[in-house]
């Protein structure tokens, strides 16, 4: 998983766990920027020189240029409360100590997403010098208190014959211990460093990742070299990651209010976070999530009897036009996955399910673990909270997690087997015949305009048996006898009965394919089918006898200015 995606998952989880118990919207944001010269000098004066003998690289970071600062902020939260030091008797809600003093301390509240333990490590590893600065405002001992401190997780070292753990803090040294700056002093330093404003009476937290590592992307040149992300490219990835992993909390309820509001900026410019309701790639999951409350399938374990959770599956049309919303997508191609979650409604992972034979369609499923087993599923999560691993558990707990996955996979396979391509392509999308004006949004084929580069992967048509026919290569544009034609190859399986295969074409749109073209509109037309021996069948349909499976090629006349999708419809003699 991309480190920026992990950063979103972990930091948002902690912000949501700190939500105000009295309700309200959590405002969660990440701002990427390079400090202005004056602010850069202030950062340098705060952190430099670095502690002697530590070799953290703080001085080198500021000497090398203008580092990127990533500021993760939340408002509508309680801030990091509790005592300032770990040696004080802790009470529930000691978040300041758990984040900044202790390592690996578990959450002390039920039904929360994560910990301020191992998961917080991504905050430090995302910094080129392993250093963060934290400003938080919380309720403490009956009043509001602002706290500001910087911390580093480095490597062990020795100095003057003493061994050090590699943990460092920048703050006000009291009795030999660095404590945070407090109240007006903390707010004053935060303002000088350019941290986001915190209004009077407002609580929340800002975490600055100093010298943020933005990762890299694969270039689009012939060498496909990895290149460092720009600030904007990193911000676009963060916005995509927020949509893919936080969307259940971004949806509005019946009052029009969402639990979570997300924001990303790059050098002060707002980078829109994609709307999951409007994004075709994730819309089936949204529809399935909403169906959990109206028409769920209840997954159960028979012996001993218990409810494992609720499941809903909804269809959609697979988009072919990729946007920045897909940058952090957890899978490639059409959706045939289940978003798994537990009660905090944070996405754990996207479990891959059975794939439809037609790549023009997709489906999204959502599984919500039953609240009575929330602790079991939470214990099955690794430190990054991105899977349910039954081998981490024993006894009854292991059985529950294993059975839930087995039942889920069975339901996904049964869903694909029950529904044909047409049904799977239905969903809540608008009629495609009315969307021909969107042709400008089509992606071109690699070999020229007019062919859709998607492929169709064969799947079993029933228990133990392969499909009767499947496409073996994506449509591509060639020239035959000086004329542009689309060709695609498919295979017919040798069967015990005659098999009839029809090649169906449609105009490809950026949200799927056109099922009903406007009157008089040009459409891709199948001219003939050729087998591997060069024999030709005019039109779009061929019937082969028993045991006569072979490879075929479809020759298609393109519709000018459009891309084409191709799928197969097949029947065996005796089928109804």
Strands, count:
32
The helix-and-strand class reads: alpha+beta
Mean model confidence by pLDDT: 81
- Tell me what portion of residues adopts beta-strand conformation: 25-35%
The helix content, as a percent range, equals 10-25%
Low-pLDDT residue intervals, each spanning 5 or more residues: 103-118, 421-465
- Which descriptor suits the 3D outline? elongated
Number of helices: 11
Characterize the largest beta sheet: strand count, sense, and whether it forms a barrel. Answer: 9 strands, mixed
Radius of gyration: 28 Å
Distance between the termini: 46 Å
Using brief descriptors, characterize the structure shown.
single chain; 576 residues; alpha+beta; 9-stranded mixed beta sheet; elongated
Q: Can you describe this structure?
A:
The strands form eight sheets. Strands 1, 2, 3, 4, 7, 10, 11, 14 and 15 form a nine-stranded mixed β-sheet that branches. Strands 23, 24, 25, 28, 29 and 31 form a six-stranded antiparallel β-sheet that branches. Strand 28 (525-531) and strand 29 (536-538) form a beta hairpin. It is elongated, with a radius of gyration of 28 Å. Helix 1 (3-17) crosses helix 7. The chain has eleven helices and 32 strands. With 576 residues, the protein is an alpha+beta fold.
């Amino acid at each position: 998983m991309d480190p920026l995606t992990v950063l979103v998952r972990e930091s948002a989880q902690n912000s949501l766990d700190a939500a105000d118990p009295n309700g309200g919207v959590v405002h969660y944001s990440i701002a990427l920027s390079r400090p202005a010269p004056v602010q850069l000098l202030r950062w340098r004066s705060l952190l430099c020189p670095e502690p002697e003998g530590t070799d953290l690289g703080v001085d080198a970071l500021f000497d090398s240029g203008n580092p990127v600062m990533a500021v993760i902020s939340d408002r509508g939260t309680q801030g990091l409360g509790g005592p300032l030091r770990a040696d004080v008797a802790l009470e529930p809600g000691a978040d300041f100590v758990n984040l900044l003093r202790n390592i690996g301390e578990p959450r002390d509240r039920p039904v929360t997403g994560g910990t301020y333990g191992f998961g917080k490590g991504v905050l430090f590893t995302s910094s080129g010098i392993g250093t963060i600065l934290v400003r938080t405002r919380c309720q403490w001992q009956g009043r509001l208190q602002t706290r500001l401190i910087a911390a580093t997780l480095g490597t062990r070292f020795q100095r003057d014959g003493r061994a050090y753990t590699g943990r460092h803090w920048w703050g006000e040294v009291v009795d030999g211990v660095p404590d945070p700056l407090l109240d007006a002093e903390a707010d004053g330093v935060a303002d000088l460093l350019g941290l986001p404003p915190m209004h009077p009476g407002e609580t929340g937290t800002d975490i600055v990742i100093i010298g943020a590592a933005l990762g890299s992307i694969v270039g689009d040149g012939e060498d496909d070299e990895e290149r460092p992300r720009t600030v904007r490219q990193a911000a676009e990835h963060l916005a995509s990651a927020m949509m893919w992993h936080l969307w259940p909390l971004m949806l509005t309820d019946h009052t029009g209010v969402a639990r979570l509001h997300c924001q990303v900026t790059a050098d002060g410019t707002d980078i829109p976070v994609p709307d999951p309701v409007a994004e075709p790639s994730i819309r089936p999951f949204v529809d399935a999530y909403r169906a959990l409350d109206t028409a769920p399938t209840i997954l159960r374990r028979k012996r001993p009897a218990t409810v494992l959770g609720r499941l809903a599956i909804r269809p959609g049309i697979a988009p072919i036009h990729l946007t920045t919303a897909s940058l952090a997508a957890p899978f490639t191609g059409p959706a045939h996955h289940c978003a798994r979650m537990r009660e905090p409604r944070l996405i754990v992972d996207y479990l891959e399910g059975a794939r439809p034979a037609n790549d023009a369609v997709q489906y999204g499923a959502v599984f919500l673990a039953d609240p009575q087993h929330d602790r079991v599923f939470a214990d099955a999560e690794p430190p990054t909270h991105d899977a349910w691993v039954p081998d981490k558990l024993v006894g009854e707990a292991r059985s529950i997690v294993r059975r839930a996955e087995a039942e889920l996979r069975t339901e996904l396979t049964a869903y694909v087997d029950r529904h044909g391509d047409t049904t799977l392509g239905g969903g809540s999308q608008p009629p495609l015949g009315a969307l021909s004006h969107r042709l400008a949004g089509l992606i071109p084929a690699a070999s020229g305009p007019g062919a859709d580069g998607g492929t169709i992967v064969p799947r079993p048509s029933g228990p133990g048996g392969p499909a009767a026919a499947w496409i073996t290569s994506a449509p591509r544009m060639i020239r035959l006898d000086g004329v542009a034609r689309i060709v695609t190859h498919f295979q017919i399986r040798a069967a015990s009965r005659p098999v009839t295969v029809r090649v169906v074409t449609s105009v490809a749109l950026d949200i799927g394919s056109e099922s009903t073209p406007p009157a008089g509109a040009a459409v891709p037309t199948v001219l003939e089918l050729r087998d591997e021996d060069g024999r030709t069948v005019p039109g779009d349909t061929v019937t082969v006898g028993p045991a006569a499976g072979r490879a075929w090629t479809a020759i298609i006349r393109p519709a000018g200015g459009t891309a084409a999708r191709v799928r197969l419809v097949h029947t065996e003699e005796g089928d109804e």
